[in-house]
Design goal:
alpha/beta; five-stranded parallel β-sheet; globular; single chain; 40% helix
Length: 301
């Protein structure tokens, strides 16, 4: 199978490229703003470029791992949020459907309001921010454009090695080693989910041409950000990362943080659809990250 990953320079997209190749598939990736060796530049907002890309690559499956994920930024610019998270994936999905290409597009646990999590695939979404509404609209648009044949993997609290070093594990690592205070919400929780685990699971779903909404999440839906940060600190130290004496964690409630966009507090997810998600032990996942950092330190910090 040939898999095209739109957004292959990002956290999940980069791991998906590796997982696909490890499983014996051909994988091609794109980037938009962050160049990575071996990836081709592509703007999903250009329909002509999309059609040309599909002709040139001729993939069997496409995974749309792009979009605008800055939650507070979306609150300030709803037009851009809906363009990048709802309209552009829908346009690509429609072209794929016309050509018989299986299409997958990532969504998020933020489609839920966080009042009564953890949530399963059949639970009704109730988004409470612009970002969340744009992602839910993206789910609906993609499924409509593909007559229900698209795969919608919902993700939560993803961490792992990435070239841009933006995810939560990277933030904790920098604060830990640089001696900064990390201010975190005490009342937001969700499953820490290791990007390679997500990628391997998604490859298996693509191999079976699964469709509809699937929750791809780690095993701790009630884990708070404070607990997650403490787990990361302990695992980093166990893997040999030195703790700066000035490092500290400061806990505030979401209300005290005054973030621009509303956050779902209990947004953890579970799956009632599959057993394909195979979990890497947390300490092992951090050890893998630290080992990779020895050769590419910018990937983590």
């Amino acid at each position: 199978m040939k898999i095209l990953v739109i957004g292959g320079s990002g956290l999940v997209g980069s791991h998906l490229l590796r997982a696909a190749r490890t499983a014996g598939h051909e994988a091609v990736g794109t980037y938009r703003q962050f160049p990575v060796a071996g990836l081709r530049r592509f703007d999903a907002g250009n329909d002509t470029a999309t059609a040309e890309l599909l002709r040139e690559v001729s993939p069997d499956a496409i995974v749309y791992a792009a979009g605008w994920q800055w939650v507070d930024g979306c609150e300030d610019d709803p037009a851009r949020a809906f363009t990048e998270n709802a309209e552009q994936p829908c346009a690509v999905a429609g072209l794929c459907h016309e050509r018989g290409i299986h299409f997958a597009s990532f969504s998020t646990s933020y489609v839920f309001d966080g009042q009564r999590g953890p949530y399963a695939e059949a639970d009704a979404p109730n988004p409470i921010s612009v970002y969340a509404r744009s992602k839910l609209q993206g789910e609906q648009n993609v499924l409509a454009a593909t007559e229900g044949t698209a795969l919608i993997p919902r993700l939560i609290c993803v961490y792992g090695m990435e070239a841009q070093a933006k995810n939560f594990a990277s933030q904790v690592w920098r604060a830990l080693t640089e001696g900064r205070t990390l201010t975190l919400p005490s009342d937001q929780c969700g499953n820490p989910s290791y990007a390679p685990d997500i990628a391997r699971c998604l490859v298996r779903l693509l191999e079976r041409r699964e469709r509809g909404v699937w929750h791809l999440a780690g095993p701790r839906p009630g884990c708070t950000r404070i607990e997650w940060a403490e787990m990361l600190v302990a695992a980093f130290q166990a893997a040999g990362v030195a703790r700066h004496p000035d490092f500290a964690i400061k806990a505030l409630t979401t209300a005290e943080l005054k973030q621009r966009a509303a956050r779902p507090l209990r947004a953890g997810m579970v799956s009632h659809k599959h057993t394909d998600y195979r979990v890497t032990e947390f300490d092992d996942s951090i050890r893998e990250m630290v080992e990779q950092t020895e050769s590419t330190p910018a990937s983590l910090g």
